[in-house]
Amino acid sequence: MAEALPDGVKHLVAIKQVEKSIKLTDQAKAELQSSGMMDEKGKLKIKGVSPKMLKRMKLESVDCPVLKQEVGFLQCYVCKNFHSRISGQVYCKGEPL
Q1: What number is the average pLDDT over the span 62-90?
Q2: Which H or E element spans position 5?
Q3: Which residues contact 2 (CB under 8 A, 6 or more apart)?
Q4: Could you give the count of Cα atoms lying within 13 Å of 13 in the half-sphere of its Cβ?
Q5: 91 pairs with which residues across the strands?
Q6: Does 1 reside within a domain?
């Protein structure tokens, strides 16, 4: 039996662990800086997320159904399609970027 997805969500994507963090794209960095989650020096400061959790998030990736490639979880987190993260999975809206 398939799990019912919340309204507006098209994809349920599993989060994978990686050995080495995947670099953020320039677009993702700009998005982080404009929303105040990254300072001018490139240091991440996400409100409500501890440094320990941030370190763990850097070592996670997802197979993005929109970009059709593997991206780091932080890039997924700042994407406009990100809905929520629950139990090692990401709810993605799946809209074109």
Answers
A1: 93
A2: none
A3: none
A4: 31
A5: 12, 84
A6: no
